[in-house]
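User: My collaborator sent over this chain with a note saying "see what the structure looks like." That's all I know about it. Can you take a look?
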Amino acid sequence: MTELDSSRIPFWRRHEFALLVSIFAVLVLTTFLDKNHNYVTEWQQSSIDLSRQTALLSLYALGAAVVIIAGGIDLSTGSVVAFSGTICATLMMLMAPEAIEKSTPVGPLVMTTAITVTLLIGVLIGSLHAWLITEVGLPPFVATLGTLVGLRSLSRAIMEAATQAVQGGAKTQISIGDKSFRELSGAISGTSWNLVILVLIVGAMLWVLLGKTVTGRHLYALGGNEQAARLSGIQTDRLKWLAYCLSAFLSSLAGILYVGQLSVADPQTSGRGYELNAIAAAVVGGCSLQGGIGTIPGTLLGSLFLRVVIDGVAKIIKTGADVYEGLIVGVLVVFAVTFTRSSSASTTQRRLFSGALGWVTMVNLTLLAGVMMALLGSKLIEGRITMDPVWQAGVAASAALSLMLILRANNSVQAKRKLGAIWAVGLIAATVGSDLTYPGVQREAAKSTVLGLGGRIIATKDGVIVDLNGTKCDDATIKKLMQRLKYFPNLAEFRLRETSITDKGLDAIFRTWETEADCPVTRLDVGDSAVTPNGLKRLKQNYPRLTTP
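Assistant: Without extra context I'll predict from the sequence alone. Here is the result:
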C-alpha cells in the first residue's frame, strides 16, 4: 500500500488504526501486570523515556522503511550507528583534545564540524551501498551485510588509533562531557521534546517525498517491479542511491544522538541488533519485504508499538528483561511478515500450513509457543496465576495448535472469523479453568507422593498435618514435595521424626513462602532426625510462632 492508496481507505480499516488499538491494548495490559504500575504512578518519566527511545528508533527505522519500499534491504543500520558515533566523538577529540580530556565544552564550531562531517560520511556509506548494488551487481543483502561486519571493526580500529595518538594509550571508548552536545538528545534536561520534534519533521519530509512527489511514486514503482520501472524509463539506479543514502544518513544522525544521550562512544556495544529493530519497526508498520508497500505514519506507529512492547516487558519482568528483547523482536517480525502477506495469500487461495511442510511448521510453532510461555509466562503474570510454567506452556501450546488448525482449514474468511472468535473465548475459558483446577491437582499429587513415601496427610479442624514420621524422606524429596504442598491453604504441621531431613530440608520447607507472615506452618516435629540444634534454633528465631516438642 502506497501513501496515496492509504488515503483512499477509511481510517478504521487501515493498518495504522490497528496499530493504534494494539498500542493502547499493550499499554493497558502493561499497567495491569506491572506491580508498580509505573505508567500511572510515574507517568511523566515513563512518557519521557518511552518517547525518547521511540524517537531514536524511528529515525533509523524511517530510513530502513524507504529502502524496503524501494525493494531493498539494509542490514548495516546498527553498524552505521556505531561507526557514526565513533567518527563524531573521534573528530571532537582530535579538534579539542583538552576539552574532551577534561569533559569541558568543545565549542560550537568543533561540535558543528564534527556533526556535519559525520553526516556526510553517512551519505558516503549510502553511496557505497548503492554502488555495490547497482554497479558491482551485489544483492542488497550481501552488500549491506559486508558493511554490517566491516564498519564495526573499522570503528574500533579508528578509535584505538586516534586515542593512542592523542591520549597516549589505545582506548575503546571516548567520553563526551559537552553539555550542549548532550542536550541535542535531551540528556541534560531530561526531556525528549527535541527528539520528538526532529522525528516529526523528518517523518513529514519523507511523507511528502513518498506521497506527494514523482520521485516517491517512482520509489514505490521500483519496489513493486524493478524491471517494469526500468522499462518505463525510471532511473532506478538513482532511486537506489537516494534510498540507501537516506537510510545511512538517518542512521548516522541517530548514532550522533545516541552518543549525546549516553555521553560515550563505544563501537563495541553501540547499535548492537539495531538493524533488526529497524526492519521490525518498518515491517510491523506495514512495509512489505517484497517492496512497493509501506507508509511513513505506519512506520512511526510500528516504532512506537515495538518500543511499547519492549518497555512493557521490561516493566513487568524487571530484572533480566533484556535477555528476551531479541526473542520478542524476532517473533514480532515473523508475525508481521506473515500477516502482511495474508491478504495476498487469500487472493491466490493459498492456505497457511498446507501440505506436509505445513504440519512440520505447526509442530515447530506449537513448541515455540510452549517454550516462550514457559520462559516468559511466570515472569509476565507473576502473582496473578497459580499454574506453574509447565502448565502454562501446555495451555499456550494447545492454544497455538488449535489456532493454526483453524487457519489451515479450507473454510471461508467469514467462517474463519467466527471460529477465531470461538477460539478466543475458548482460550479464556481454558486458561481460567486450568488455573482454577491446578491447585486441586497439585494437592492430589502431594497426597499420592506422601502415601508413596509411607506417610499420610491428616485434615483436622486446626489445619492440615503432613505426617512423614519414620519414612525415607530426605532434603531432595521434601524440596520437590513442597512445590505441591504449598497449595494446601491451611497447612499447619510437619511431622518429620526419624527421617533423613537436615537443616537444608527445613530451609526448603519454610522458604516456600516469601515472608514469615505468609507461612501457615505453626508446629514442627523433627525429633531423631538429622536436623541440628543450631539449625532448629535459627529457624525458631526467624519464625517465632513455630512450636516444637
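A starting point for your reply to your collaborator: Strands lie at 174-175, 264-265, 456-460, 463-467, 491-495, 523-525.
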